[in-house]
Design a protein that fits this description.
Helix content: 10-25%
Shape: elongated
CATH class of the largest domain: Alpha Beta
Radius of gyration: 26 Å
Strand order of the largest sheet: 12-13-16-17-19-18
Strand content: 25-35%
CATH superfamily of the largest domain: Metallo-dependent phosphatases
Length: about 525
């Protein structure tokens, strides 16, 4: 009898230990003294979302939660509005716990060290913070550093001017590095100088090359930044970050949402009020993602949505309608963000020793400042180390024969322009404003940069710029944020000012000038 009782007791203990290894529990608590520890006199917070990357649960009245885990699970709290999570020295939000008992597989760049036995409790601290209705955030596309030299380009060209920003947080939209995740530390240290919490999206150049399975491609990314699919809330806006770069068995990648990511988004959105703005963040544009229809299905009943990506090294506003599989009543706005690296830090060096890094569409390298106000938003492009109002280039010859004026075309590249922009032009001080037609064209200056000889006016005609600089540049893309105008016939001889004014979809107005001479 005693032996039978002992056998049952052993089975119960083993079962209990087994269960503790597959179910994670903990508390989301109000960290009043901000020490990151759940002290005895601190209380749990109810109705806070916690996820294992698949399921999403709400904490109970005592702040407790419970979730199943496997041998490679990222557990995270979804930061609610009105609270902050701790950040580390690199300003990376610490809202997660990685459960990898055996650690990452052996890789060329280390991943996560073995985490061992699942802790008895995984507690997430939250600290109250004031969050006004209108806040701004910085969005960096493709910093894509190749070595410390380009990490320093990022710091000097973009990061320095962001110090002192009013933005509440920032996001890098993938391709943080160029196939060298060993640089995550250095680039994070540089970006941290801005002094705001910084989130990161996984890009196709952020992977561990030695990993053969997509499951392990983001191991180093996770070590530095946490789960590669996550969410957080700020004001009336919810943000969902996706790793939509999926590596196939042949080593090639495609833009794809996994079943787990779709399930996570579905489970989380069940708790999101329809009156909130839902912002999806990813690396590859959603319109290139093969199973985007599954995400569209989740969003169809949400009237306020926006998605943001990088990847293409050009800036574009895409308005997705039913012809592009959208299921909502209104068009969905997908914004392809400007790149910090421009065209992969290619081009001639300026007087500060930094390459011009023009994007493929002829726009200067830079970043976006997005303002979120309730369930509305507005986007403003900022060119690196340029004035705030540098928003376009006007292309027309410096000197024009009077007889040729009526056949001379003026091309304007409005960097952040879209089909919802209005672009107007007038000739001279007393000219009338005329509305210009949007066109598709390659940027003339960007084309010129691809041949070093004409660019420098040297006897090296025909030699490509990347052949001299050592990095291959993409051929300039056809840009949709171009507008065409023309001069009046028989204008008076002398110097004249062309004025161009653009009003974007958010009502922001930018004006620029071009002085020419009529001979």
């Amino acid at each position: 009898m005693k032996k039978s009782y002992l056998r049952i007791l052993i089975i119960l203990v083993l079962f209990s230990n087994s269960f503790s290894q597959t179910t994670a529990t903990g508390t989301v608590f109000l960290d009043e003294n901000k020490n990151g520890i759940f002290d005895l006199d601190e209380k749990g917070l109810s109705n806070i979302s916690v996820s294992n990357g698949l399921d999403v649960v709400k904490t109970d009245n005592g702040g407790k939660w419970s979730l199943s885990v496997g041998d490679d699970t990222g557990i995270f709290v979804i930061k609610p509005s009105g609270f902050s999570v701790p950040v580390n020295d690199a300003q990376i939000p610490q809202y997660f716990y990685l459960h990898k008992p055996n650690g990452s597989p052996t890789l060329d760049v280390p991943g996560v060290e073995p985490t061992g036995t699942l802790p008895q409790a995984i507690d997430f601290p939250l600290v109250p913070q004031n969050e006004s209705e209108a806040i701004s955030a910085l969005f960096f596309g493709d910093p894509q550093a190749r070595g410390l030299k380009e990490v320093n380009f990022i710091a000097r060209d973009v990061v320095q001017e962001c110090i002192g920003t009013d933005a509440k947080f920032g996001v890098s939209l993938g391709d943080i590095v160029a196939d060298d995740p060993a640089l995550f530390k250095e680039i994070s240290e540089s970006v941290a100088q801005i002094g705001i919490p910084w989130y990161n999206i996984f890009g196709n150049h952020d992977h561990n090359r030695a990993a053969k399975d997509d499951k392990y491609k983001d191991e180093t990314f996770e070590r530095f930044f946490g789960p590669s699919t996550f969410a957080f809330e700020y004001g009336q806006t919810v943000f969902i970050g996706f790793k939509n770069i999926y590596y196939q068995p042949d080593g090639k990648y495609k833009a794809h949402f996994t079943d787990e990511q779709i399930a996570f988004a579905r489970n989380y959105l069940k708790f999101v009020h329809k009156n909130k703005l839902v912002v999806l963040m990813m690396h590859a544009p959603i319109l290139y993602t093969n199973n985007r229809d599954k995400i569209y299905q989740l969003l169809k009943d949400y009237p306020y949505t926006l998605s943001i990506s990088g990847h293409t090294h050009q800036m574009a506003h895409v308005f997705i309608d039913e012809k592009m599989d959208w299921l909502g009543d209104d068009q969905h706005h997908h914004f392809i963000n400007a790149t910090v690296s421009g065209s992969w830090w290619c081009g001639m060096y300026d007087e500060m020793g930094i390459p011009h890094a023009t994007m493929n569409d002829g726009g200067p390298n830079g970043y976006s400042i997005i303002t979120f106000d309730g369930n509305q938003y507005s986007i403003r492009f900022k060119a690196a180390r340029r004035p705030v109002d540098y928003q376009m280039n006007i292309y027309v010859p410096d000197e024009i024969a009077q007889a040729d004026a009526d056949t001379t075309k003026i091309l304007i590249n409005v960097f952040a322009g879209s089909e919802r922009s209005k672009v107007e032009m007038k000739f001279g001080k007393n000219g009338e404003w005329t509305v210009l037609e949007q066109t598709i064209a390659r940027d003339p200056a960007c084309l010129k940069m691809h041949k070093l000889g004409p660019y420098l006016d040297l006897e090296l005609d025909g030699k490509k710029l990347d052949e001299v600089l050592g990095w291959k540049m993409d051929f300039p893309s056809k840009s949709r944020h171009m507008w065409m105008g023309k001069l009046p016939s028989n204008p008076p001889k002398g110097a004249h000012t062309i004025t161009v004014k653009t009003t974007d979809m958010f009502g922001q107005i930018w004006t620029d000038y071009r002085i020419i001479r009529i001979n």
